[in-house]
Design brief:
CATH topology of the largest domain: Rossmann fold
Strand order of the largest sheet: 3-4-2-5-6-1-7
Largest sheet: 7 strands, parallel
Strand content: 5-15%
Distance between the termini: 82 Å
Number of helices: 28
Radius of gyration: 28 Å
Number of domains: 4
Bound molecules: adenosine-5'-diphosphate, zinc ion
């Protein structure tokens, strides 16, 4: 029998004590840094656990929705561990702003990418070698160069953060081939902790990240993907642009927001239209001159209240916290895309809107794009499945948030209606649509499945058109059987039969409507159909910003509101002077808190969330003066 070596055990106990003691000290230090540097009172969600894990040298995979607070999860460990934290990011255009934002709070950060001169890069490399930086942002293609890898070998490195980690996924629309090669980090620097971060929620992408980045041993931190401050709304498309304008005028005058369109042409037309109607809008798409594009992006980030009209080329990494709405004028290709795009609203946690207008034409257009693309059959099938899922979200009669969360496999929050989506706020009336569906299906059948939506609806409504005369469709038994319904109503019904899979549009024969296999059961009366009742699109009315669950826009008194506006004005001027985005100085929420607190001294100001030591030093006196002037 082995004798027990007490001395050894004592040694292990001591070591454990030391490590829990160290961990406790580290936790205290992390919180102290959060408060003094960033000016935030407490960690959010699983930030504290993630930071603790990485500080101790563990690998992590962090899945957190946009606005969840991913950056602190690598910034704080990089500050707490020895050496420089290397952040891999594909977002070259945003690196300057990120570095500026860190400089504002007194963190020593820099970047290495192709926008610099050789001389500038040399300076940064020198600082890295001498341990004078806490964080360095590096573009993946830069990181993979021999020169950079060799540099990293001689620098003290605290961690590798792989931001926007979903870029390794070949299925996603943000795929970056260089990301796949990032497995080299694990091979060459096995001792250094890696933290991969993304806001993409689906399981397939997560599995791909783990496999490609060799993160099998990483601890996974999956946050709730719910964004309770975002109100989801999907409206019937009547005149997309005018509906959008009504929505903006009713709810978002002078707010920053993003309007997504499918094509470059539509981006330009929509931006033009909004400008003509007095909205401060800018276009953004991949076809614009790089200079114009960069300039528009910079203005959107830096100025208050700009509406960016864009294709999906715009948005990744845009960390502007006060985007108050995201509007879709066209149907996104998938729920993943929709969720990512709408997620750019309300990062600051204040009430925000995700608004979309959608109609039959969207379905037709998207299906045609899939059919006509030269991708292989497998890929087409996948895309088609994603589109079906998107349609199901549009046509659902249940809470949109529940639908979204359960789509992403999250049960938490998916059972209970949210109270903050259009369906919860204005429940649609479902009705037994078996008979109308039968009418529609048989009309399609009677015209030999050779005509598109317009003509089929004309037949149902008993219209007298040339084509009806020509084909003698006024002699059909279905002619005029649906004359009591408007054309828009029939379109809504048709859209739902497509979403539910009874009808499909055949692009190879001039968008002719065809019956599917499942239509038979409905026609025979073996299957009943439920639909949402058609409601005439209503003009948007001025809505209160208030949202349930405490996402109410702070109800400020008139004086507080005035002070807030003054502070915003001061912020704008200061941002222009320092050539940095306004939100980098202080968020709206911080300015609002300052306006409410009316600090008379630096000590008063210190307690406001978002005011760290460096900002107190830089701006504190100006703010106290400004407040004093108002009172
Ligand atoms: P993500 O990268 O996950 O989209 P960010 O890291 O940009 O999110 O954080 C979103 C916003 O929340 C930022 O403006 C950030 O300053 C703020 N934030 C992050 N963590 C906290 C916290 N613990 N307390 C208060 N604000 C926070
Ligand atoms: Zn809801």
């Amino acid at each position: 029998m082995e004798t027990i070596n007490f001395q050894n055990i004592q040694h292990v106990i001591e070591a454990n004590k030391r490590s829990t003691e160290e961990s406790r000290i580290m936790k205290t230090k992390a919180l102290a840094l959060l408060q003094s540097v960033f000016g935030y009172p407490a960690f959010r969600g699983s930030q504290a656990e993630i930071i603790d894990h990485v500080v101790q040298g563990g690998d992590a995979l962090v899945l957190m929705p946009t606005g969840g607070g991913k950056s602190l999860c690598y910034q704080l460990p990089a500050m707490l561990r020895n050496g420089v934290g290397v952040v891999v990011s594909p977002l070259i255009a945003l690196m300057q702003d990120q570095v500026d934002a860190l400089a504002e709070v007194g963190v020593r950060a820099a970047f290495l990418n192709s926008s610099q001169t050789f001389q500038q890069a040399l300076e940064i490399e020198k600082k890295m070698r001498q341990g004078e930086l806490d964080l360095v942002y590096v573009a993946p293609e830069r990181l993979l160069t021999q020169r950079c890898l060799e540099l990293l070998e001689i620098c003290p490195i605290s961690l590798f953060a792989i931001d926007e980690a979903h870029c390794v996924s070949q299925w996603g629309h943000d795929f970056r081939p260089e990301y796949i090669k990032l497995s080299v980090l694990h091979e060459r620097f096995p001792e250094i902790p890696r933290i991969a971060l993304t806001a993409t929620a689906d399981h397939a992408t997560r599995a791909e990240i783990i496999k490609r980045l060799q993160l099998e041993n990483a601890l996974q931190f999956v946050s709730s993907f719910d964004r309770p401050n975002i109100r989801y709304r999907i409206v019937e498309k009547a005149s997309g642009r005018h509906q959008l304008l009504d929505f903006l005028r009713a709810e978002h005058t002078a707010d920053a927001g993003i309007v997504y369109c499918l094509s470059r042409k539509k981006v330009e037309e929509t931006a033009e239209f909004l400008i003509q109607h007095g909205v401060c809008a800018l276009p953004y798409h991949a076809g614009l001159d790089t200079k114009v594009r960069t300039q528009n992006q910079a203005r959107f980030l830096r100025e208050d209240g700009i509406v960016m009209v864009a294709t999906i080329a715009f948005g990744m990494g845009i960390d502007k916290p006060d985007v108050r709405f995201v509007a879709h004028l066209d149907l996104p290709k998938s729920i993943e895309g929709y969720y990512q795009e709408t997620g750019r609203a309300g990062r600051d946690g204040a009430a925000a809107n995700a608004w979309m207008s959608y109609g039959l034409q969207d379905v037709v257009q998207q299906r045609r794009m899939i059919d006509e693309s030269d991708a292989d059959e497998n890929y087409k099938r996948l895309q088609s499945g994603k589109l079906d899922a998107m349609l199901a979200l549009c046509e659902t009669v249940h809470c949109r948030r529940c639908h979204l969360l359960s789509y992403f496999g999250q049960s938490e929050g998916a059972e209970k209606a949210c109270g903050n989506c259009d369906i919860c706020l204005n429940p649609p009336h479902a009705f037994d649509a078996t008979i109308v569906t039968q009418q529609l299906l048989s009309a399609i059948y009677r015209v030999d499945q050779r005509f598109a939506a317009g003509h089929v609806i004309d037949v149902l409504r008993g219209m007298d058109t040339e084509r009806i005369q020509q084909w003698r469709h006024n002699k059909l038994s279905t002619y005029g059987i649906g004359s009591e319904r408007s054309e828009a109503e029939w379109r809504a019904i048709l859209r739902q039969t497509i979403a539910q899979g009874y009808v499909r549009v055949d692009y190879d024969s001039y968008n002719a409507l065809k019956l599917t296999e499942t239509a038979r059961a409905v026609l025979k009366g073996e299957k009943s159909v439920q639909m949402r009742r058609y409601e005439k699109p209503q003009k948007a009315t001025k809505q209160k910003r208030s949202v349930s669950k405490g996402y109410t826009e702070a109800n400020l008194s008139i004086e507080t509101q005035q002070l807030f506006e003054k502070l915003r004005h001061w912020r704008m001027e200061t941002a222009r002077l320092h050539n940095i985005p306004a939100y980098v100085i202080f968020h709206d929420s911080t300015l609002r808190d300052i306006a409410k607190a009316r600090p008379h001294s630096l000590a008063d100001l210190r307690g406001v969330s978002g005011v760290g030591e460096k900002k107190l030093e830089t701006y504190g006196a100006q703010i106290v003066d400004l407040v004093a002037l108002q009172t």
